[in-house]
Amino acid sequence: MKNLKYLIIALLIFGCKEKETPLEANKFRIDGEVTGMKSGNLYIFNFGADASVDTLKVEEGQFKYEGTINEPVKRVYLSAQPKITKPDDPFTTLYLEPAKMKLNVDIDHINKTKLTGSKTMDDSYRLELKRDQIKEKYSEINSEYRAIRESLNNATTESEKKEYSLKEAELSKALQSYNEEISIVNQDFIANNPQSYITLSNLSYTLGEYSQEEAQNIFDKLPEGLKNSREGKVLEKEIQDKTKGVVGAKAGNFNTLDINGKPIKLQDFEGRYLLIDFWASWCVPCRKGNPHLLDLYAQYSPKGFEIIGVSDDDTRQKAWREAVKKDGIGVWRHVLRGYQTSEDIADIYNVEGYPTKILVDPNGIIVGRYGNSPEDNKAMDEKLDAIFN
């Protein structure tokens, strides 16, 4: 009788407890708690091929979110707003996996949202912690740099512009150390976490810091599921594209119209050295480098040197034409890159940032590739000097 009593009590306790349905394959479930919102909506944004917005109904400060993941990891964005239209709109990135997860949301500090139960999210938090430590170290310099930039934009006299420009250059140099430290942290994570989705994602953003061989070695260590994911396949193509536009490779052909509507193709420059200058009207370092390019052109063009400007201004053609005129660089020919066409010149040469300059010899072989660092500019000058002098 006593045992029966305990059995009834046990049945009452455990029988009343709601059974949680086990997850099916490729499914996820999130139990969410919200601080600062008793009832209302949160929004999950899916970008890419499956772009959509899911509405999460918050009741009594809680919500549930379930769905399907067809790849190892699904990156989404959480916001309290039905639209994300500006970079400073409050949102946070979440990495979802086929698992049961918990999400704690502070509606007033959406960027401090905490997701548990996702190993990828844990990896992201570890990397962000190290990045945040570096950001804190350089916070004063960053604040000062932003203030100087604002002062420079609002300067009305030449003396003010000169003063603020010198200060901006000084702070930019100091911030190079910040960028270098961030780069080291990213590279360390990639090297020590070859199986992580965050490695795949980070490699996509920092691909320019690696040679084609280095990037391929990192990619080869990723799990097959990540390699075969949509993002993995995009990254694989980008890595393969790194063989394009490199020193020693054949220069990619193009056939387009110049700024005056005249046909122009790579073969037009056979027999001469050609510097392909990838730039944009909105690119400050590009514009600052134009006086030096004019000096080089004046010095070497009589000896068989040509320049062609390839601009990332397909959607800003008026600004492009005005920049060419204002900077006085109409002495050489100019084309648009052909963004989103079958012949995107920047894609042909695997150009991801501006300015980028590619030197092609008279036989159509790439003999130099230069970015915007002082070392690159010096190397370009020395190369041209060695060729023509």
From TrEMBL:
It comes from the Bacteria. The keyword Transmembrane does not apply. GO terms for cellular component: cell envelope. It holds the Pfam family AhpC-TSA. One of its GO terms (biological process) is cytochrome complex assembly. Keywords: Coiled coil, Cytochrome c-type biogenesis, Disulfide bond, Redox-active center. It is found in: Cell envelope. Residues 131-181 form a coiled coil. Residues 245-389 form the Thioredoxin domain. Its main location: other. InterPro entries: AhpC/TSA, DUF4369, Thioredoxin-like_sf, Thioredoxin_CS, Thioredoxin_domain, Thioredoxin_ResA/DsbE_sf. This is AhpC/TSA family protein. It comes from Aestuariibaculum marinum.
